[in-house]
Design goal:
single chain; mainly alpha; 4-stranded mixed beta sheet; two-stranded antiparallel sheet; 41 helices; globular
């Protein structure tokens, strides 16, 4: 503590407040801003899965089913004593959740963060003015923001700030450390920081304090630490610094590297245009603190605050998870020393204004839209607790199977997330390991060996592999769950299981997680897996499409982002798409691609903001379009629908997740296929920015990353040159057409400037271009994948009542080797395309049926019904006129002309009939994509009857119908096990 002389030389807060140029109202405004900043940084979605483990523990305690010291969740922890320091937190979490729900839990969490901000404010106000205190505390809150999780450590931060405040108060305040320790020991394993603070006070006590009294307080604090259900067992190392955890090698496990990450990374400060406020705030605080340490040591002012900071700083420099402890301990020292140095600034005219503006800037940076989008934060402001739909479905399915005597045996769970969800949703199924890594330290090598068998991590050292394999086999695992939150690692594991069939065989797919059992896998096992998904009604979309298609909003209109929760169907779609990439069977690739699209569509009906599901739809549609069944058949209407489906899904993906690199890459290639140079230039610029920001992906070398980046840079330069050339050509060709938006839009579209053409039409009045311009606008929108805007343009009651008001639209089709175009109602055609792209299968099938009816009506209207009789009569007459010495030459020529014209009319009749059959086929393909097999069979039957009638054996539609009809009608019984 400070000596008497030093204390007298430090200005008091009241003195500083009196010398300031701001009123007390200004101080209150700054204090409120600090609290708002704390509330904003605490109001993000709780995504840490250990919330479910704590909630499950609280449920057991509340129901009287919990036994202290016994682990109720692990498989191999029977002989280990579990000192659950957080049992009081678990019970409070469970009761709060039951009483007021998840919103109440998150509100309580925000209240704790506000209390932490208040305690930091109080600890700094002893030494500095409110202006400096507000600025430094705001930096501390931003630095703490990544670790303000719904965990027991949040309570530890609050209690540590309270302990420091008691140490600063001295005297009777020091006795407050005793009850604080008694409470802390039942909340978190970092409770020993309380007695440690008392010990540091004893090292350099203040003159008015006696060592005997301080020793008594220390002894009382140590005795208070025994006020818990576990007794002396609570004196264990926290998981982050436990020697058992480090000896077991858990920090080297690639699945857990994030838990033990080092703060020495430039990624904490941001990449490629990003700004990470927490990293920069942490760096600034470290600079301020070290200067304060040097000054304090030089003045020989050694006290508890300095000692705590010096002890906690190595931990903060070791692991990024441990930085909050040091931040809380560093604030009083920074304010004490910098309060002395900046005395003249604190009493200046602009100090309050500067601190207020700086706090407002930090608040802006903390918002998701801070700095106009430069701050790319993964967290959205919300008081919600994330519930992983796939893991919940997995846990509930395993629980139901256990209750239905469908026992999976001794289950290996390869990731802590699975264990946490099992603890709450399936408590009767024990897991392998969770984040209590010290409990499973002795089995760490065996768990890693089993994970290597699943292809999740590289294999262990050769020297220990034999012993580890014996230990792992001795655990008698009969089943395993293939799960990993990292997409690349999960993808490699699926490929490993698919190609190495000696140890594990697929049992069934639960959500996106593959349930495996011991045994040798065969081809029939994977076929059975696909058949199970093919007949799973939970993967079939309703056909009404997603809830809402995303449309671009003006820059001045802010829409609060909704929480993206995802769906377990989208997780299943990801697996089927990966299986499509692995299988080589022609029919199997079609079925897995259809399953991927079908499951992703069902997932989008649950959460239409799932960008990953939209990306899966795009890749599944692309896989079907590139499959020989569709690419070789070459049915133009269906190929156009596939193109729009692909581009629309990619557009929706980037609108919901603008930093989705894979979608921008695909959109660049899709724009070049049109070609649309301005769109391609926009997306290739996005790709370059995201590549610079993200750096090498997991497992990619720096050299490969540089090569990939250079290829995209060369492509960007080529696209930009072509784009600028087309812009110059447009300026030359459109000169003098200022009042003709339709002509200018057509020129722009011909030159590949689709964005320019769209802006010309959208910024012009409809009266200037009429229905013809509306049809062109719709065509440009659907070709570029902007089906949401096209749907808004088409959603008109008058058009629905009178579809021909929009006019006709030429749609190409193919009858044999002859390329034809048919004029169809533009409304029905665009309705069909938009509905197919949006997943509105019912509406799309109705539009296809309306086109069929139109084609039949037009055929009956313009062609004679007695055409066969007329052709027969004309042929007989021509034969008679061609007899020797009968008729004149002119009459013979007239008969031949009449027969030729009638035959041409007959061919036209066949073409109309075939076109109607093609749209019956399209209707069946949409039904098949949705999963309505009966509707697909009915539509295929209608198309087949027409194809048989016109003898169209060489038509593209016939070839496509034959393949998909065989897929629908094929009987594939499940192989016997």
């Amino acid at each position: 503590m400070a000596t008497v002389v030093e204390a007298e030389s430090v200005p008091t807060p009241d003195y500083l407040a009196g010398r300031g140029r701001f009123s007390r109202g200004g101080v209150r405004i700054l204090f409120v801003l600090v609290l708002v900043l704390a509330g904003v940084n605490a109001s993000f979605v709780a995504r840490n899965s250990d919330v479910w483990l704590h909630r499950a523990t609280g449920r057991l305690i509340a129901n009287g089913e919990y036994h202290f010291g016994v682990d109720p969740f692990g498989q191999a922890t029977a002989g280990s004593y579990w000192a659950n320091h957080a049992w009081l937190f678990d019970l409070g979490l469970y009761w709060t959740w039951e009483l007021v729900g998840e919103k109440g839990v998150m509100a309580t969490k925000v209240g704790l963060v506000l209390l932490l901000a208040y305690l930091l404010w109080r600890s700094g106000r002893r030494w500095s003015s409110p202006w400096l205190t507000g600025l430094v505390v705001s930096l501390a809150i931003v630095a703490l923001s990544p670790r303000l999780l719904l965990q027991p450590t949040l309570l530890s931060y609050v209690l540590l700030a309270a302990v420091i405040l008691c140490c600063q108060g001295g005297g009777r305040w020091l006795w407050g450390l005793v009850p604080l320790t008694a409470v802390w020991v039942n909340l978190d394993s970092w409770f020993f920081l309380g007695p440690l603070a008392v010990a540091l006070v004893i090292v350099r006590p203040a003159p008015e304090q006696s060592r005997i009294l301080l020793s008594m307080i220390l002894a009382a604090s140590l005795a208070a630490s025994l006020c818990n259900p576990h007794g002396w067992h609570v004196w264990t190392w926290p998981m982050e610094i436990s020697p058992a955890v480090w000896r077991a090698g858990w920090p080297d496990d690639p699945r857990l590297t994030g838990l033990f990450a080092s703060p020495w990374s430039w990624a904490l400060l941001g990449r490629g245009g990003e700004i990470h406020p927490s990293g920069w705030a942490l760096l600034l605080l470290a600079c301020f603190w070290w200067t304060a340490v040097i000054a304090s040591v030089r003045r020989r002012q050694i006290d508890c605050v300095l000692g705590l900071g010096l002890l906690l700083f190595p931990l903060a420099a070791w692991q990024v998870r441990l930085t909050p402890w040091w931040v809380v301990a560093a604030i009083p020292l920074i304010l004490r020393e910098w309060g002395r140095w900046t005395l003249s600034w604190q009493t200046s005219r602009f100090s309050g204004l500067f601190s207020t503006l700086a706090t407002c800037l930090l608040l802006w940076l903390s918002l998701p839209s801070g700095l106009g989008g430069l701050t790319q934060r993964e967290r959205t402001l919300s008081w919600s607790i994330y519930e992983h739909p796939g893991l919940r479905h997995l846990a509930e399915s395993l629980r139901d199977g256990q209750q239905g005597n469908d026992n999976v045996g001794y289950l290996f769970t390869p990731h802590p997330d699975v264990a946490h969800y099992l603890a709450w949703f399936a408590p009767q199924i024990r897991s392998s390991f969770d984040l209590r890594l010290h409990l499973t330290a002795e089995h760490a090598e065996a768990y890693r060996y089993l994970s290597h068998q699943l292809g999740l991590i590289p294999h262990t050292d050769d020297a220990r592999r034999r012993e580890t394999s014996l230990n792992a086999d001795g655990m008698r695992y009969t089943a395993a769950v293939l799960y990993d939150p990292d997409p690349a690692r999960w993808s490699m594991a699926v490929e490993h299981i698919y190609r190495s069939s000696a140890q594990w065989r697929p049992l069934r797919l639960i959500a996106g997680e593959l349930l495996l059992e011991r045994g040798t896998a065969t081809v029939s096992d994977w076929q059975r897996l696909v058949q199970q998904g093919w007949s799973d009604e939970a993967l079939i979309p309703t056909g009404h499409g997603s809830i809402e298609l995303a449309v671009p909003e003006p820059w001045w209109r802010f829409r609060w982002p909704r929480l993206r929760r995802g769906s377990w169907q989208a997780e299943a779609a990801r697996f089927y798409l990966r299986l499509h990439e692995l299988t080589t069977e022609e029919v199997g690739k079609v079925r897995t691609a259809l399953l991927a699209v079908r499951a992703a569509r069902r997932g989008l009906e649950a959460d239409d903001q799932d960008a990953r599901a939209w990306l899966i739809v795009a890749r599944g549609v692309q896989a079907l379009a590139q499959h020989p069944w569709e690419s070789a058949a070459g049915l133009p209407p269906w190929q156009r629908i596939r193109q729009v489906q692909y581009r629309a899904a990619l557009v929706q993906a980037v609108r919901h997740q603008p930093d989705l690199l894979a979608a921008h890459e695909s959109l660049t290639v899709a724009a070049l296929d049109l070609p649309a140079w301005d769109i391609a230039f926009h997306h290739v610029q996005q790709v370059l920015g995201l590549l610079h920001r993200s750096g090498p992906v997991s497992g990619e070398s720096v050299e490969n990353y540089q090569q990939r980046l250079s290829r995209w840079q060369e492509l960007a330069q080529s696209i930009e040159r072509q784009f600028r050339d087309q812009e110059n050509r447009f300026l030359l060709r459109s000169a003098g057409l200022a009042g003709q938006p339709l002509a200018r839009a057509r020129i722009a579209a011909e030159l590949g400037l689709y964005d320019l053409a769209l802006s010309i039409l959208q910024n012009s009045s409809v009266e200037l271009y009429g229905n013809e311009g509306v049809v062109l606008l719709l065509e440009l929108l659907v070709q570029t994948g902007r089906v949401a805007e096209a749907n808004l343009l088409l959603d008109n009651e008058n058009l629905r009542q009178q579809p021909l008001r929009l006019g006709l639209y030429e749609v190409p089709t193919s009858t044999g080797n002859i390329q034809r175009t048919f004029q169809l109602p533009a409304y029905h055609w665009f309705d069909l395309v938009i509905s197919a792209a949006a997943g509105r299968y019912h509406q799309g099938r109705q539009a296809a049926q309306a086109i069929e009816s139109f084609l039949d009506q037009e055929r009956q209207r313009f062609l004679p019904t007695e055409l066969p009789q007329a052709i027969a009569t004309s042929l007989i007459g021509e034969i008679g006129l061609s007899a020797p010495l009968t008729g004149q030459l002119a009459f013979r020529w007239l008969g031949h002309w009449k027969t030729t014209r009638l035959m041409h009319t007959y061919q036209q009749t066949l073409a109309w009939r075939t076109a109607a059959a093609d749209f019956s086929l399209v209707r069946g393909l949409l039904a098949l994509e949705q999963g309505d097999l009966s509707g697909a069979r009915q539509a295929f039957s209608t198309a087949a009857s027409v194809y048989d009638e016109v003898k169209a054996t060489a038509y593209p539609g016939v070839r496509l119908w034959q393949r998909y009809h065989a897929l629908v009608t094929a009987a594939e019984p499940l192989p016997q096990r």
